[in-house]
Amino acid sequence: MRVRFAPVPRLLTLFSALALAAAGLLALPSQPAAAASYFLPNSLTAYTDNSKPKKAYPLDYLGEAPIGAWLDSAGAKHVSRGYYTFDLARASGRQITDATLSLVEKSVADCTRPRAIEVWRVAATANAPTWKNAPAQLTRVGELAPAQPQECPSRYLYADLGPLLRSVQQEGASAVTLMLRVPQSQEGTVAAGRRVASVGISLEDNGAPAVPGKLSVSGIACTDGTPWIGTTTPELRAEINDADYPGNPFERLTATFAYWPVDRPSERVEWTSSETSTGTLLRYTVPTALAQNVPYAFAVRATDRAGATSAWSPECKFAIDTTRPGIPSITSADYPTTGWNGGPGIPGSFTFRVAPGDTDVTQFRWGVFGVLENVPVGPDGTVTVRYTPTSDGPLTMSLASYDRALNRSDTVNYTFRVKTTQPQIDDQNPDGAIFQPRTIVLSPAMDDVVEYTWWLNDGPHTTVPAGADGKATIVVSPNLAGTNHLYVTSRTSTDLPSGKADYYMYVATSPTLTSPDFPDGENSEGPLVGKQVTLTFHPGMPGVTEYVWKINRRDEQVVPADADGTATVTWTERDYTYLNIELTSRTADGFESTPNSYFLTLTSHAPTVESAEYPEWSTGGGPGIEGTFTFRPAQPGVTSYTWRLDDGPEQTVPATTDGTATTTWTPTTDQTGWHTLKVREHIGDVTSDEKEYSLIVAEPEGS
């Protein structure tokens, strides 16, 4: 009887197998976290046929290869074996942690027979072999196992190749060739044959971590020398990295720190950190005190989860010195601690000297006003710096020594007095207005002054010579409303500068206001609301041609100035009990003064309102119920009242001889709820501010 292979629809490739594993359908060997899986490059896929022993049958990766006995369409029997060569170059120098050979069964002659496909390592070959010239069989690796034993044909058969490929790697081989065959006892049995495709090797490998770098001791980077450290329990630091990251985002590393006395390596101490991520700067503080003046060394290596270990880092050497330097000293011939000397802008020399007996001081740290800088110590234990004061008066310079281990001495403070050298400024017209020229006399505060340099505000610098008496006269015209600054410096014939004088000139430009209705200004008891008032504006600078003014935040108004620079306006206020006046002035060329403001109080005379039927802020009456409202005056002489309800029309009612008036109002059915009655009193043509009387019309009973 002839046995033929049954076709199988759409079988899995290796990528499908990986999907099965991810879904939990395949149990692949577990390994420590390593680099992500990849497939080894396949340089040969082929099979041989014993019926044509001299012919090679190369295939592409997805091509089907017959394994074992099979019948052709004419019924002739053939026996075949598959050959596959894989390139190992990518794994060179790396630790192979897992390797799985996998394939897909495309068809099976007889699914009732136990499956048997052997995996052999054969001599490496790059060319498709023939049956007659097949590569030598070297090692039987094992048999392929199914992911799901009951499935036939199987979508995924696999074999563990980890031990084999690690052995091949140790041999130094760059490729491996595998053979697939049916066991010899069944190789001639057609019922044991099958066809396979998508033969590949999925590999996981792991590279050793990089040699740790960025070694330092208590923040001091390691060099070829032996840095000195100012603590007996220094902090050792190193950065660890692994090139497998970020390809393997789960890569974790540990670091092993080792330290020992250089001349006693047998006293080596090691400490291993907990796991951390790549790129971490690890810190380890030596737990027990190290001896002083003894050279030590430390080194670090890294280990990943797969057990791959880097080489030890280069040794970092250091020594311990915790002895603080003595207090240094400061001397200066230019600025001694006695008397008043030099001046702002005049540099002086200051000599720093280490304390007697100190031989390992390497630098000084010094400064004035808290601005500190470092300077190295000379071979003789001293250094001289130049410092130029920027102000007069007492100044204090601070100084501290630092030794080779950066141990710091106590601070010494050196106080010296800087002479006042800024020129004296005598203003001959201190009350001058803006733009008015002022004569200024400049006098020296130093000997042998030959010139002055001056500038107004941010203006240009001008230099003038000093007279025989050391003085000079200049003319300045303040050009800013408000604050102006005149700056002056002097210089001697030997080019010594003085300090900078700053003369403050305040030039008032704000206009002022007077009113016969407010004789005491803002302290006056003002006239009644509604009475016309007169306001007169006065200039605060020469050349005023107009005023810009507004009251109670209403629109701005402009009024021209009279020949004497003043302007007079009138105003009648009916809505507020005050006048908030904002005022500026301008010249013909558009220069505007600084603003001024006034707050003047008016006398309120809003009337009072009474109603028995509709009391204020209360509920009363109702639709159809007439209410009587009585208006009472706030000032004598009231002649009438005007009133309106809500936004209704304004109505007028005359006052009686006692100054009161009454009016009535009957709400309609649609006028329940809140209402506001607004009332003003009139004394001749003077109208008061408004009284607002709020009331609530009651709902009809039963509504």
Automatic annotation (TrEMBL):
The keyword Signal applies. Residues 1-35 form the signal peptide. Keywords: Signal. This is Fibronectin type-III domain-containing protein. GO terms for biological process: carbohydrate metabolic process.
